[in-house]
Predict the 3D structure of the following.
Amino acid sequence: MQVTVRALADADIGAAREVQTRAFQEHDRSFGDPVVPVTAEVVERQRGRLQHFLTHDPAGSWVATVDGEVVGVALALRRASLWGLSLLVVDPSVQSRGVGRQLLDASLTYADGVDTAIILSSRDPRAMRRYAAAGFDLHPQIHAEGTVDRARLPASRRAVRPGGADDLAFADAVDVAVRGAPRGPDHELLARTFRMFVVDDVDGRGYAYARSDGRVVAVAASDDETATALLWECLAQDADGERTVDHINAAQQWAVKVVVAAGLRLAPAGPVFWRGRTPPRSYLPDGGYL
Ligand SMILES: CC(C)(COP(=O)(O)OP(=O)(O)OC[C@H]1O[C@@H](n2cnc3c(N)ncnc32)[C@H](O)[C@@H]1OP(=O)(O)O)[C@@H](O)C(=O)NCCC(=O)NCCS
């Protein structure tokens, strides 16, 4: 099999999106997880992500092809001195034949010279193996899901306000303090796509994003108490419905306390890998934009 690894191009976006879908559907099936249906909204989000990386991180955006067909994709971002892997997928028809390794190696060239790097791994043993072999430290994670028991919402909550386009410089300042690098253009996309919440008072500052379907996208705050207030606010939105909180590791006991108090179920998830530092405490990263 002759594999070519080259830069992602605009014309690849449709095929790259399909590889992403096939790879994760196969991953979910192999773990007995429910397979996420590909709705028009999901397609839009996948396309938007590929387009965003092509625009802002062309040097971190790669595809692998065989006979001219896209069979793998890697997307990585670089913000100040932080590198993050957003996506690594290989079509199930050619997995376990070295394509993922080649894509990751290409993508890591974009990390040359950075201080810190993050990868949110799936549970695929091939992915975990390569990330650990690339010098990243593994930190186990859980995720939480279920319906929030509204009787357990804290009686008095810290003042959290809706955020928006005017809060992006503030949010970047939080990011620099929390993880050493701003999100820059990622905030524009996140604030456009998701609900944003902000805390900015004498006790601390932070922000969160949540999806309208109840998934908490990201939390970043100066301290655990502020992160706790933001996570409760995300969980308290809308009266009914399922909530999901991803990417909780052992440094984030504040988040474990919140999801347990809210009545959500805990389940093992893929680990987070960091290189150059230990995981920030008051920070729940986002799978796509970290
Ligand atoms: C994870 C994934 C990208 C890896 O790509 P791949 O082309 O299948 O993997 P590779 O052939 O490059 O193998 C990667 C490593 O796993 C090892 N490996 C291969 N098959 C394996 C298997 N069945 N079990 C365990 N390890 C295996 C390889 O030996 C290799 O390690 P090495 O380079 O030290 O020898 C791909 O399988 C995939 O798309 N999985 C589903 C989506 C996913 O989970 N993506 C990762 C998101 S973080």
Summary: The first helix runs from residue 13 to 30. DSSP finds eight helices and 13 strands in the chain. Residues 23-24, 27, 88-90, 95-101, 121-122, 124-127, 129-130, 133 surround coenzyme A (CB under 6 Å). Helices lie at 13-30, 40-56, 99-108, 125-133, 168-179, 185-193, 224-236, 253-261.
